[in-house]
Amino acid sequence: MNKKNSFIVLAVVVVALLVCGVTGVFANFQSPSTVLKKMAANMSKVNAKTENIDAELAMDISTASKKAGGAPTTVKLTGSFVGKVDSNDEKNPKMDSVLTINVTSPDFGAVSGTFDFKSIADATYIKVEDAHLPAFLPIDITPLKGVWMKLDTADLKKLPSGADSLASKITPEEKQQVLDLFKDQKIFTNLTRLPSEKIDGINTFHFQFGIDKEALKALILKITELQKAHASATDKTPIPTADEMNKTFDGVTFNKGEFWIGKNDYMPYKASIDFSIADPKSPGDSGHFVVSLSMKDFGKPVTIEAPTDAKDFKTVFGNFMAGLGMGAPTR
Questions:
Q1: Residue 173 is assigned to a structural domain of this protein
Q2: What range defines the domain where residue 85 resides?
Q3: How much is the average pLDDT of 104-130?
Q4: What is the pTM of this model?
């Protein structure tokens, strides 16, 4: 698995820690125990099956110049995810979201895009609101803009990327093993209370934490063991080895993590983490990541409906590619 894939695996795991850790694992800390125990107790009582989610990602990746004495090239990526979730029916969860991505690089200029996503029952709906490609790709994407395209779950499972999630394959016993390890490894360290702050007008307790790299590695390796055990012959998802994880973590620095819990309802309203990755063998290659996740409107009703004018994704995209001279029109 190459360096980029290692970075991606680590970034995905860190985001998962934000989503899962703030709502459960922190409850195991004994200090400040009162706030965290009340949060855990309240989370189990509140029917938080619906919520609104805002997430942001800021990433700077610097690559050493191949020319002697040249300045490093820095790629900047920012992204935002705004959505709402309805999981009242656990067998039919729904999501409605907007994803915005902006990338700038001295090599290819600016690239940006805004995309709408809906996930309902056995279908995913995608719409390109806007997109700007680099100058060296003079492609007119107008035919794709503003069109809801429908992808059936059966089609997603055919993608060569391991689209079947691990969670759908492992046994209840294996899931419990991961949860137990998540708790036992004490991944989160140095929990400290900071001055209170308001999040969207809500008074919150504010805490800071650190991350134990060795404990995190143990958790990731356990998950990769399960991935290998359940991987199909056609699954091309990159799975890191223990040696690869050690090399990746050699250059990782977890700078700071924070989370905010409501003072009145003891619900988790925000979590963030700041970390850096450097290649020990190439000092000029490094990345700095800042990820934040905000949640609100727990348990409030949301309405998520399928687009009535959606068209088949394969048809729309097939015709688009045919327009570029890459294939025949799809009927």
A1: yes
A2: 3-323
A3: 90
A4: 0.72
